[in-house]
Fold each of these.
Amino acid sequence: MNFKRPPVIAGNWKMNGTSEMVIQFSKNILKRVLDDNAKRCEFIICPPAPLIPLLYESASQSAFLVGGQDCHSSESGAYTGDISALMLKDIGCSFVIVGHSERRISYNEINSTVKLKVGAAKKAGLISIVCVGETQDQKNNGETFEIVRSQVLESIPESASDSDIIIAYEPIWAIGTGKTPEIEEIANVHAAIRDVVAKSKGVEVAEKIRLLYGGSVKPDNVAGILSIDDVDGALVGGASLSSNDFWSLCENAAKLFAILNRKV
Ligand code: PEP
């Protein structure tokens, strides 16, 4: 983590939770106050779409921002069951996750689909959290860098810059499994992603863009992962479903950031 890039902790509730869970989060964490030095951190919760308005209302004046889990690439139209970026913005979202591996796998989303969604999100004024990552087989075959590189290049529109996107490296084999890559592996992939961004968008954008790690991040491993230079935060699934776990995770990230901030 680098003090120049405000860290992001984003919780992805996936298809979990009812209004009762939002009420519990509201009581347990949404009103807590952070260390002054950590106020530049961004904490995001991405609940299922029907819970967004309630969460947005409960999180007002808190340290937490709200995001969607996916959006359609069109603004409106005959797309039964879909939600546009404009609609997410309209109900209080500042962010949207796009290209999560669960969407890529279950809904056959390919890089070009993700790219259109990122474009739609940018147009609506949302920051996209663009997910990339390799499968276990691809890792075993030594294809990690190649896969991640092509996902980054093909999923992000030419016009998108560091203020429009955050990239989340999520090895698919680490999601929900309790397994994480070695610290060195995370460091190498993140450095490679920053390099790809530098070559495609310039060094200035690469230095400013935030890169998250996702895949079995928990309160007790978050500090180690965020200590890696090129890791600017985490995308968290399972541990974002418990208000206690998510709060400890956010607090641990904020403490680390506060230490970095005080050192300069
Ligand atoms: C995710 O689905 O984006 C994720 C990182 O999940 P988990 O933290 O449960 O591995």
Note: The mean pLDDT is 94.
Amino acid sequence: MSHVLDVDFISFKDVKLAPKAAKTGPSTTLVVLAGADAALGKASKAILGEAAGLVAKAAHSAQFKGAAKSTMELLAPQGLGVDRLLVVGTHQKKKADPQAQDGLINLGGFIQGKLGRAAKVVIVFDAPEGEHDAAQAADLMLGLKLRAYKFETYKTKKKPEDEASEPAKVHIDIAVANPAEVRRQVPARQALAHGVNLARDLVNEPANILYPVEFARRAKQLEKLGVKVEILDVKAMQKLGMGALLGVGQGSVRESRMVVMRWNGLPAARTKSKSEAKAPIAFIGKGVCFDTGGISIKPAGGMEDMKGDMAGAACVVGLMHALASRKAKVNVIGAIGLVENMPDGNAQRPGDIVKTMSGQTVEVINTDAEGRLVLADVLWYVQHKYKPTFMVNLATLTGAILVALGKEYAGLFSNNDELSARLTGAGQATGEKVWRMPMGPAYDKMLESQFADMKNIGGRNAGSITAAQFLQRFVNDTPWAHLDIAGTGMGSPSSDINSSWGSGWGVRLLDRLVADHYEN
Ligand code: BES
Ligand code: MN
Ligand code: ZN
């Protein structure tokens, strides 16, 4: 994680713009928001003083109408002690989806994308149209932080133009009516920004650095936040009978691991009779640190993307980080299966039959359908050991989900309508959208095997659905949802709040699910 962004909230009254004495020193930018016809809010007008007239004139000649996603820039405006004034349009012709609550996060990201090389920034956050509340101001900060994320760990050379002018540190003051009220919301948003950016880091890391043991070591660092982290090695998993997970990893010189993270935000009641802690909720992630396909090897073109085949596990770690940092009042299990899928003299072969922890046997027709094998054992383990209220798993499971939904929605597969509705709602609110796909016995039948209890693939058609059916065979009555994030977790198109290959998809979605329905 690079790019240090320091954000603070100040009062409108405390915005002080001093004309710069020397020509050197950090470059400063003032940001104001404009509504329809470039109208400014009260606080912006007061802060701009006489320069407000300048803005009106410039807007007229530049035909700037204050439309959302448009900006107008004034360099070294006379009478204002800043190097640059950035006027950001916010007026939306069409009213936004009333369910969507990601508007201010996106605005923050949009502004961050326009800041360029300024080292000191003041954003005057008044509303030219309507009102802003404290949560929206905190959302603006979240958007700034998400957009500022860059993964530059392995860049040892800077471009000459960056060397001279890229500020090492950026300080942003957001001016609001009541900074004290906004500051109360800040820790939770910081936690979320950090959680998303951590997930992005994990997805972006190459597989020679981030292999199962190293991934587990990074997850272990959550202990600093009060998360209990247990790492199961190969021997421990052999003892549990996790033949499916271990079969995937057996062709790699990198040993497999499973990590269970526990955040108990609801301490057990003190009275003896009620000493049992409340049942946890559980999140489970596919952590294939690299997926070559194994003996059913993938084509060379684009195979480098398979370093991101652990995006589900990355999301779970980022989420646990966020929940623990903001001390969420909930008991949560995060469990990830970490393997590397390699072709090798010891790799599993097509036709091999493995025994899962559940006792069910699987004929491995295609070694590239490995994610479901890993999840089968982790789902079974979590369900039996922790008896969670629900399980949500995330996995970059099938290329077919990209064919069906592209990069816009993740596929949602579930045995439970309430959980599905809650996930769909959280998706609308955060912009991390999910679309429910069908399941049923006819699809399940496609997994029948001649030699074992099931095959690990279903045939040409409905590839994402048969993958989900496979997972469901390892879930009993526990409410469960599977999110296929092959399209959303990596290789994401740039957006206002993300310019990273690894998007950190799902952290905001699931944090929201927890906050809205499972905290008390
Ligand atoms: N990790 C891949 C799925 C994937 C594809 C993720 C593209 C991200 C982008 C998964 O393990 C896989 O290889 N799935 C196969 C399943 C097939 C063999 C039934 C696939 O989708 O082709
Ligand atoms: Mn695969
Ligand atoms: Zn895979």
Note: The longest strand covers residues 281-291.
